[in-house]
Design a protein that fits this description.
heterodimer, A: alpha/beta, Methyltransferase, Methionine Synthase (B12-binding Domains), Chain A, domain 1, Rossmann fold, five-stranded parallel sheet, 9 helices, B: alpha/beta, TIM Barrel, 2 domains, six-stranded parallel sheet, three-stranded mixed sheet, 9 strands, 50% helix
Chain lengths: 210, 444
């Protein structure tokens, strides 16, 4: 394992940033540093899936990736050739709810697993979800909510997507604090997820990779 | 109770004194039946807390805004109008007749008070979130990383002169004050006082006075409501609240993401801050003017749930100082009530390290059979009826679920039936099914 991957996956933020600096001084290709960072995120994602890492490591890894991205940004001259994505997920916390941590973790894990994630943020109204589904044609719509007020917002979001004629060929998953099969039925979603891994498994199943 | 005699009392004597205060609230009951019912309810809860069998499984509702939604009101309505709130919760309690009051005190907080304070670390209905939504944290760094040393050295000074000016606008002027220690020496007072005349301070003081008037009106309604329900036979449950030191630090000081990164970046500071906050958390619950109405202290737990950290992180950063707060409260004769939202399956063994019959743990989505076999051996457990069932299930499904809880967790006592999280609403018939199950099926 490259020392940068090891430092990032081992939650050694200061070491990781020092290694990035040293690599740049040596004239290393920024693209290679970016690839190594992605590799580290893979390792973190795997450890989370195995149950050795939890929320803290995902947040810390995301922060390291953000910092390294900022360092590399001006050096990555032209836009990198986009790597082929497994599929697209539109993600957001529904109307009336401003919780973002669970949603961010789902977004992180989906990206680590090869999905394009369109994150609409928190307190997202029905019309914003409808527009994002129309514009991005995702395979999966992932609705997040922590409070019981989210039950109704999720239900009305799915209704509006349906009214706009966008429900066909779209799979909807809900997740967050109180979501379970009873809420799934109430909202009309296809699935509910207890954690970020459930969202990844659902998205992979939807696009036909397991 | 004189302080000197309190200091000489043992923890058991203090607890007995607080319990006698709870059983004998010193107000005129509506009639002898109400008085008998009041005492029967308190004794039923106490038996469960003591891990004994009451006459039947007690049933409570640590309700959020359900009292409002049942009356057709939004969270915004009841936070704006305390008269409406008091009426709604009075009607709700008299209708459903739970074993403790379902209280609006932690839900229908006075919005005019919050507006006057310019309270910033939460959004509330109509102020940052929709009128139908409950209040929610504004995740932000209300305390900066470089401020750990100040917090650790002198928490109250830090809170007064750094944190409050940032988190509560009305305290803005406090940022320019020198230490309050200046009053310990007469001549130093001259150095402290100029800050009190600044335009920002004067505006803030006017805001504080206005906030106090708002909450004065609020207390008139709420105090009347609570007293009225007690007189009708319904005891209050919580006398005060506190938090786990890690949650104090993480929820509204550093913020979730920052405190989590602090565990990696500056673990020693996090640990020192949590340890420093132990006596602060104990005093928070105790040092309120007036007597406590019950021995039970409410501690909402947040960042120690499964998934939020590993067992190692829990046993390092979260549990030792939470345990110290719990033991400190027990020493003061209190009964700590831990509101353990989310899943607590990974923690059930660790939290058993507590004296028997001294605490209550309300569980949300925790495996209750396993909870009974572990923490249930030393503590009363409460809760676990899913909000989703209340909201979208049927009375039959609710009854079935509650019967299963009575069978598995209720066996031998030490169990209180309740929802697993703060209920902002649901179907009345499902709530009735939950209550009926405790009252009929839950007989011992």
């Amino acid at each position: 394992m490259h020392e940068l991957v090891e430092a990032m996956a081992g939650m050694k933020e200061a070491d990781a940033l020092r290694i990035v600096d040293e690599m740049l001084v040596k004239g290393e290709d920024p693209k290679k540093i970016l690839d190594l960072s992605s590799e580290a995120m893979q390792v973190v994602g795997e450890r989370y899936q195995e149950g050795t890492y939890f929320l803290p490591e995902l947040i810390m890894a995301g922060e390291m990736l953000r910092k390294i991205g900022e360092i590399l940004k001006p050096r990555l001259a032209e836009k990198q050739g986009e790597t082929r994505k497994l599929g697209t997920v539109v993600l957001g916390t529904v109307r009336g709810d401003i919780h973002d941590i669970g949603k961010d973790i789902v977004g992180f894990m989906l990206e680590v697993n090869g999905f394009e994630v369109i994150d609409l943020g928190i307190d997202t109204g029905e019309e914003a979800f409808v527009a994002a589904v129309r514009d991005n044609k995702p395979q999966v719509l992932a609705l997040s909510g922590f409070l019981s007020v989210a039950f109704d917002s999720m239900r009305s979001t799915i209704e509006e997507v349906e009214k706009a004629g966008l429900r066909k060929d779209l799979k909807v998953i809900i997740g967050g604090g109180q979501m379970d099969d009873t809420v799934r039925r109430y909202t009309g979603a296809d699935a509910y997820g207890d954690d970020a891994m459930a969202a990844v498994a659902f998205a992979k199943e939807t696009v036909g990779v397991m | 109770m004189a302080e000197a005699s309190w200091a000489q009392m043992t923890a058991d004597e203090r607890r007995a004194w607080r319990i006698s205060q709870w059983r004998n609230p010193g107000l005129p009951f509506a009639n002898p039946e109400a008085e008998a019912e009041y005492r029967a309810r308190v004794d039923r809860i106490l038996a469960a807390i003591n891990l004994e069998k009451p006459d039947r499984v007690p049933v409570c509702l640590i309700g959020g805004f359900w009292g409002a939604s049942w009356a057709g009101l939004t969270p915004y309505d009841v936070m704006s109008d305390p008269a409406k709130a008091a009426k709604a919760w009075t009607d709700f309690n008299l209708e459903f007749r739970l074993d403790t009051q379902c209280s609006p005190l932690f839900a229908a907080v006075s919005a005019p008070m919050l507006e006057n304070l310019d309270y910033r670390s939460y959004s509330w209905p109509g102020h940052g979130v929709t009128k139908e939504a409950s209040f929610q944290y504004n995740e932000r760094q209300w305390m900066l990383a470089e401020e750990y040393d100040h917090l650790i050295a002198d928490p109250s000074d830090y809170l007064l002169r750094v944190y409050l000016p940032r988190a509560v606008g009305a305290f803005g002027g406090f940022a320019n004050l020198s230490s309050f220690c200046d009053f310990i020496e007469m001549p130093f007072s001259s150095f402290h006082m100029p800050g009190w005349g600044s335009p920002e301070m004067i505006e803030g003081l006017e805001r504080l006075a206005a906030a106090s008037r708002s909450v004065g009106e609020w207390w008139q309604h709420m105090g009347g409501m609570v007293g009225g329900l007690m007189a009708a036979g319904f005891p209050g449950y919580f006398a005060g609240g506190s938090k786990a030191p890690f949650d104090i630090l993480g929820d509204t000081l550093r913020g979730t993401k920052e405190v989590i990164m602090d565990m990696f970046r500056r673990p020693d500071k996090v640990l020192a801050a949590c340890e420093r906050l132990v006596p602060v958390a104990i005093n928070w619950a105790l040092k309120r003017p007036g007597q406590l109405g019950s021995p039970v202290i409410f501690l909402p737990l947040h960042k120690g749930a499964d998934g939020f950290m590993s067992d190692e992180q829990f046993n390092t950063f979260y549990w030792p100082t939470l345990r110290a707060v719990i033991l400190g409260l027990i020493e003061e004769g209190c009964i700590p009530f831990m509101f353990a939202e989310g899943h607590y399956n990974q923690r059930l063994e660790a939290i058993m390290d507590l004296p028997k019959g001294t605490t209550v743990w309300l569980f949300d989505q925790t495996d209750m059979a396993r909870a009974k076999q572990t923490i249930g051996k030393v503590a009363c457990i409460q809760g676990n009826v899913p909000l989703s069932l209340m909201y979208a299930g049927t009375p039959q499904e609710t009854e079935e679920y509650c019967r299963k809880l009575v069978d598995t967790v209720g066996e031998g006592g030490g169990f209180i039936l309740d929802t697993g999280a703060v209920a902002d609403g649901g179907k009345a018939e499902n709530l009735r099914a939950m209550i009926r199950t405790a009252q009929e099926y839950g007989r011992y």
